[in-house]
């Protein structure tokens, strides 16, 4: 708040100073100075009761004009802040300027009052960055910094070897870990001869500039600024620390040729080759997708099932989706603290109920195992250049569905963008509209019109859709992949309720107890406390309102449903 205000014992009587229009009363306070923005405990200063203006005594009594060693022209005191054309930073310390500023309008040179009181130009010995003493060039100049960015500013200079560097780049860490690479990478202010591309943004890296480089994999190079991005680096400098090998925990132990003990389940799992029978109704507990013809492990005691590939998921994972190591957490038992509950995937933003990777450092990150299966370079059939990368954390419009997505994969050749929800669409799925498998078609030119077999709406052939290669059946993506596709069948814990996702295969689709509309999602509906719920939106309303009865449908709706079941016409 305002801090501690009390009269100053050493200050003089109230007076008018050039820096302010009102009478200033001597006082001591422990708040930010309006002039220099610094806080000094019980510092003598001046306070204006009319406009809550407070300033240190030494700032208030600053001379109106000074000559400073850092600049060749006189500097005049401004008490209304830096001019609008300046970058509003002190040319010596780089901090944001307050209201009191010494400024040269000829050179656009500014100092805060603290630096103006210092007579020496800053210079430092910083062996982590350079072997010689570095001196601040107190002048706004454009120069080639080691980071490769030609940003105007006041650089630190080595007069012995003509080395120049930004103040921020000077303090960059020497040795870091990033989750995109298995080894540590070290900072170098000169990469050396060769042709390189940054392994984060995938753009060209000038060999005459600096970067982070792996000593084990010499072709692995990252821009200085890319490697230290907040979404890439965990903020720890490992310089001087021994490199430790991360302990690998096996996800399962082999009991015999066809039997394993998986860490996520209390019973043994038996291997099944698959391929003979299509297990469409059997869902994997990890990815929540049907088993189909794929090899899988199944518990002989209960209904727990894992695809063979899902059974081999690493328990610890370094992935480009997060800057910390991720830990695999099963989602199998609603009675446990971290049990079978729905979670919102950080990458694809979809509600999921399978296994998830969570941050080992307690960040609020939960990533579905399907999204962690997408790794760089990602080869996708929707794009002719195939290789897609996670180059930035900026939200963009997906080139497949047209929706703005927070986490996207990019093509560095043409700028094509693909969201994680589209990148993780199952390539092969089954649907009741066709007896064959449906595959994703990523758009094609067509003279005629396509129609969805599920909703009978028009399908835009230029957009992605599901199709049967044998029957030429076409379906909207949303009619095949619904809101409940990645929710495992069976009982789950939602708030204090027990809920179950069941197939929406009734002769007449039931009414949602919240919106009073028919449940249109063909992938399933929620059955909770004897009621049907059509979507996650209605589910949130149900839990939030603590409903105990559902509203009965109207007489017209009941007659319509009875007529539909028995084939009558009303």
What would you say this structure looks like, in words?
The strands form 15 sheets. This protein has a five-stranded antiparallel sheet. Strand 40 (450-451) and strand 41 form a beta hairpin. Helix content is 9%, strand content 27%. The chain is mainly β and 570 residues long. Mean pLDDT is 79; it is low at 1-11, 334-339 and 547-570.
Would you spell out the secondary-structure blueprint of this structure?
Elements (H helix, E strand, L loop, with lengths): L4 E3 L17 E5 L13 E6 L4 E4 H4 L4 E2 L8 E4 L22 E4 L4 E4 H4 L6 E2 L9 E3 L19 E3 L4 E3 L1 H4 L4 E2 L8 E4 L7 E2 L6 E2 L5 E3 L7 E2 L1 H4 L24 E5 L2 E4 L6 E4 L6 E5 L6 E3 L3 E4 L5 E3 H4 L4 E2 L8 E4 L13 E2 L6 E2 L3 E4 L6 E3 H4 L5 E2 L7 E2 L7 E2 L6 E2 L2 E3 L6 E3 H4 L4 E4 L2 E8 L8 E2 L6 E2 L5 E3 L6 E2 L1 H4 L9 E5 L2 E6 L22 E4 L2 E3 L2 H10 L9 H12 L4
Antiparallel strand pairs: 1-2, 2-3, 3-4, 5-6, 6-7, 7-8, 9-10, 10-11, 11-12, 13-14, 14-17, 15-16, 17-18, 19-20, 20-21, 21-24, 22-23, 24-25, 26-27, 27-30, 28-29, 30-31, 32-33, 34-35, 36-37, 38-39, 39-42, 40-41, 42-43, 44-45, 45-46, 46-47
């Amino acid at each position: 708040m305002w801090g501690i205000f009390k009269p100053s014992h050493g200050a003089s009587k109230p007076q008018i100073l050039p820096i302010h229009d009102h009478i200033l009363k001597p006082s001591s306070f422990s708040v930010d100075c309006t002039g220099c923005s610094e806080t000094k405990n019980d510092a003598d200063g001046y306070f204006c009761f009319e406009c809550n203006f407070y300033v240190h005594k030494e700032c208030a009594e600053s001379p109106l004009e000074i000559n400073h060693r850092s600049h060749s022209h006189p500097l005049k005191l401004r008490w209304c802040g830096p001019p609008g054309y300046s970058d509003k930073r002190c040319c010596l310390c780089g901090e944001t300027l307050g209201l009191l500023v010494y400024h040269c309008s000829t050179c656009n040179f500014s100092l805060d009052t603290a630096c103006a009181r210092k007579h020496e130009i800053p210079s430092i010995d910083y062996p982590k960055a350079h072997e010689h003493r570095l001196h601040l060039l107190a002048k706004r100049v454009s120069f080639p910094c080691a980071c490769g960015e030609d940003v105007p500013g006041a650089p630190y200079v080595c007069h012995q070897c003509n080395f120049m560097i930004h103040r921020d780049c000077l303090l960059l860490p020497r040795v870091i870990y990033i989750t995109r690479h298995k080894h540590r990478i070290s900072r170098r202010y000169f990469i050396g001869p060769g042709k390189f591309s940054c392994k984060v943004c995938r753009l060209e890296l000038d060999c005459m500039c600096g970067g982070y480089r792996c000593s084990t994999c010499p072709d692995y190079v990252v821009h200085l600024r890319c490697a230290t991005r907040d979404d890439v680096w965990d903020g720890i400098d490992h310089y001087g620390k021994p490199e430790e090998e991360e302990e690998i925990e096996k996800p399962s132990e082999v009991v015999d040729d066809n039997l394993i003990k998986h860490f996520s389940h209390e019973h043994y799992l038996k291997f099944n080759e698959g391929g003979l029978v299509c297990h469409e109704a059997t869902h994997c507990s990890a990815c929540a997708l049907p088993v189909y013809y794929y090899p899988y492990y199944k518990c002989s005691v209960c209904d727990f099932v894992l695809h063979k590939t899902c059974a081999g998921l690493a328990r610890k994972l370094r992935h480009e989706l997060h800057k910390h190591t991720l830990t695999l957490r099963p989602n199998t038992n609603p009675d446990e603290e971290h049990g079978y509950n729905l979670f919102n995937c950080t990458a694809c933003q979809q509600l999921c109920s399978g296994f998830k990777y969570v941050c080992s450092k307690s960040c609020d990150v939960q990533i579905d195992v399907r999204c962690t299966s997408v790794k760089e370079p990602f080869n996708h059939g929707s794009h002719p250049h195939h290789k897609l990368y996670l180059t930035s954390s900026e939200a963009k419009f997906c080139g497949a569905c047209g929706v703005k997505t927070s986490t996207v994969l990019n093509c560095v050749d043409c700028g094509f963008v693909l969201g994680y929800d589209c990148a993780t669409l199952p390539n092969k799925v089954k649907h009741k509209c066709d007896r064959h498998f449906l595959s994703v078609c990523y758009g094609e030119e067509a003279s005629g019109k396509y129609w969805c077999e599920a909703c009978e709406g028009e399908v835009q052939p230029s957009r992605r859709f599901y199709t049967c290669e044998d029957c030429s059946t076409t379906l909207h993506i949303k009619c095949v992949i619904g809101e409940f596709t990645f929710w495992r069948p069976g009982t789950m814990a939602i708030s204090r309720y027990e809920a179950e996702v069941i197939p929406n295969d009734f002769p007449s689709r039931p009414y949602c107890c919240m919106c009073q509309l028919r449940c249109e999602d063909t992938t399933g509906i929620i059955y909770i406390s004897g009621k049907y719920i059509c979507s996650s939106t209605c589910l949130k309303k149900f839990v939030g309102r603590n409903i105990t009865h559902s509203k009965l449908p109207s007489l017209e709706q009941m007659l319509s449903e009875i007529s539909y079941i028995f084939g009558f016409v009303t």
